[in-house]
Design brief:
The chain is an alpha/beta fold. 50% of the residues lie in helices and 14% in strands. The longest helix is centred in the N-terminal third of the chain and has 29 residues, at 2-30.
Length: 309
C-alpha cells in the first residue's frame, strides 16, 4: 500500500509543479521576466578575440561584470580587453588560450583561479567551421572541429564547475547552433560537434537538477547563421522567415536569456516550431520541409573564414 501512496503523492507533486510552471510561463509571456544582477560576477568568455565573443564581452562590461577573456589570438583578445575597458569594465583579464588543448585549458584555468577568483558565469563560445563536405574534409580538421566546438566544453566544465558546486552559485552557457538541432549539407563535422555540445550541456544540466544544485543555472543557445564573418556568403531561401542574424541582435537575445536564466534559447523563434515539426512529422515529410526551406543548402555560397576561435 505504501508504494502506491508514494506513487500517488509523486504524481500530485508532479502535476502541481507542472501547472505552476505553465502558469509562470504564461505570465512571463505577458510581462518581462525579472533579470538577475551580474555586476561583480566573474564572467569567462572563450573565443573573445572577435565576433560574437567580443560583443558578449562588451555587453557584460556594460553590466559591471568582471571579465575573463580567452582566445587563441593574443592580439584580438587584447583589443577586446581595451574595448571592454572603454565600455565601462573596471576589471578585465585577457589570456591567450588554445581551447582545443586540454592541458592548456587546465593550466590557464588554474592561472585564472589564482589571479581573478572563481568563475561564476562560463560562456563556451569558441568555435570553428570548415565548410567542407564530409569526404573532402581532412581528418585533422574534423578532429579540430570536435576539439574546439565540443571537447573544450568538457575541459572548461571540469576546471570551473567544482567551485560553482561548492559555492552553489554559477551559470553554464553553451553556444551551440541550429546545426546542433538538424543536419546541414556541407557541415557534417560542425553539426556533429554542435550536437555533442548541446547534448553534453543538457546532460550536465540534468545532473545539477538531479543532485539538487539549484544555484547552478544552464543556458543552451542555438542560433541560426550569425553575420560575424564565420559563415560569410551563406544565405537562406526565405530570409524573412530564417534570417541571417545580425550579431548585435543575437548578443542582446543571448544576454537576456542568461539574465532571465532561460535553459533554452533558439533564435529566430521559428526554430522552436521547426524543431517541434521535425519531432512529429515522418522522416520523409521532415526532409521535404527542410529541402523546401533550403535548410540543407545554406552553405552553398560559403566563402567565410575557416576558423573563429
Amino acid at each position: 500500500m505504501a508504494p502506491d501512496l508514494n506513487s500517488t503523492k509523486d504524481l500530485f507533486v508532479f502535476l502541481g509543479k507542472s501547472v505552476f510552471s505553465v502558469l509562470e510561463d504564461m505570465v512571463f509571456t505577458l510581462i518581462p521576466k525579472p533579470q538577475k544582477n551580474v555586476a561583480g560576477e566573474i564572467v569567462l568568455i572563450t573565443g573573445a578575440g572577435s565576433g560574437l565573443g567580443r560583443l558578449l564581452a562588451l555587453k557584460f562590461a556594460s553590466l559591471g561584470s568582471v571579465l575573463v577573456l580567452w582566445d587563441i589570438n593574443k592580439e584580438g583578445t587584447e583589443e577586446t580587453c581595451e574595448m571592454a575597458q572603454a565600455a565601462g569594465a573596471t576589471r578585465v583579464y585577457a589570456y591567450t588560450c588554445d581551447c582545443s588543448q586540454r592541458e592548456e585549458v587546465y593550466r590557464v584555468a588554474d592561472q585564472v583561479k589564482r589571479e581573478v577568483g572563481d568563475v561564476s558565469i562560463l560562456i563556451n563560445n569558441a568555435g570553428i567551421v570548415t565548410g567542407k563536405n564530409f569526404l573532402d574534409c581532412p581528418d585533422e580538421l574534423i578532429e579540430k572541429s570536435f576539439d574546439v566546438n565540443f571537447k573544450a566544453h568538457l575541459w572548461t566544465y571540469k576546471a570551473f564547475l567544482p567551485a560553482m558546486i561548492a559555492n552553489d552559485h554559477g551559470h553554464l552557457v553553451c553556444i551551440s547552433s541550429s546545426a546542433g538541432l538538424t543536419g546541414v549539407n556541407g557541415l557534417a563535422d560542425y553539426c556533429a560537434s554542435k550536437f555533442a555540445a548541446f547534448g553534453f550541456a543538457e546532460a550536465v544540466f540534468a545532473e545539477t537538477v538531479a543532485q539538487k544544485h539549484m544555484g547552478i543555472k544552464t543556458t543552451i543557445v542555438c542560433p541560426l547563421l550569425i553575420n560575424t564573418g564565420m559563415f560569410e556568403g551563406c544565405t537562406t531561401k526565405f530570409p524573412s522567415l530564417l534570417p541571417v542574424l545580425e550579431p548585435e541582435y543575437a548578443v542582446r537575445k543571448i544576454v537576456d536569456a542568461i539574465l532571465q536564466e532561460k535553459v533554452y534559447l533558439y533564435i529566430p523563434r521559428v526554430l522552436y516550431f521547426l524543431v517541434f515539426l521535425k519531432s512529429i512529422l515522418s522522416s520523409k515529410i521532415a526532409t521535404l520541409l527542410c529541402e523546401y526551406l533550403g535548410i540543407f543548402n545554406v552553405m552553398d555560397g560559403f566563402v567565410g573564414k575557416k576558423k573563429k576561435d
